[in-house]
Amino acid sequence: MIKLTHGLAMMIMLGTTLPALAQSDTVPRYRMRLLGVYDDASGDPVEGVKISDVLGGASTITGKTGAISLFFLPEGTSVVRLQKLGYEVQTLTVTIAPDQTSPLTMLMHRVVELPTVVTTDVATAKIAATMRGFTDREHNRKTGYFVDDSILRKSEDSRLADVLRNRTPGVNITTVAGSMYLTTSSRCMDGTKAGPPQVYLDGIALSPDPISTGLGVMQPGPKVPFDLTRFQVSDLAGIEWYPDASLIPAELARPTDRCGALFLWTRH
Fold this sequence. Notes:
single chain, 268 residues, alpha+beta, five-stranded mixed beta sheet, 20% helix, disordered N terminus
C-alpha cells in the first residue's frame, strides 16, 4: 500500500506541472486528468498498459511510473479500456469535466499468460469466455433479441443502425444530418413517457452526446437519444436488444429513466 500512496503522490506532482504547461496553450487543467495503473498484488506501477478510448479509438501507453494524462479523451463521459498481456482487461467510465479533476487509480490483476503461439481457436475461446453470459441468454431466449458474432462478422461493412433494423424488432431509428438516433422504443409497454432506450457498452451505461438543434443544444439527459454512428459493427462481438424494461434479465437490469435497452459487447 505504501507504493500505491507513493504512486498517487507522483501523479499529484505531475498534475501540478503538466497542466501548468498546458495552460499556456489555453488547455484547461481538467483536460489533463491523470490515471495511475498498478499491480494489485505488489502495488508496483505497471508499464506498457494500453489505455484506449473504446468509442473514439485514441490511445496511449503507460510509462515506468504507471501514470498517464487522459488529455486524449473528449469532454464528457467515455468508456476506457486497459490492456496488457498477462493482465485481465479492465474497463471503466471516465468523465472529463471541470468538476471531475481528481486522479484515478486502477489495479491490474495478473493472469496466466498465453503461450507464445496463439491459434485462432485460442483467440475464439478467449472471446467465448467474456461472452458466456451473452451466450447463455441467447441460448435460453426467454426475452429480447440477439445478434451474435457470426452475423456481425458478416456485417462489418454495414452500419449498426442497419444491422439493428434487420435483426431487432421494435427498434426505432431516426436519421438527422447524417446521424442515426435510437429513438423511443415502439414496443415500450410501461405506459410512461420514458426516454429513448439506454445503451450499454460491455455492461457500462453510456451517456449520449449533446445534440445541436435549430433551437440550441440538447444537453445529455434521459430524453436525449443515442447516436448509433458512434459505434462500429467491426468492434462488436454481440448485441442484445430489449424493447421494454420489463423484458431485461435481472442480471442486466439497472435503474433508468429510459424505456428499453441496447447492450453492445465488444471484441477484446
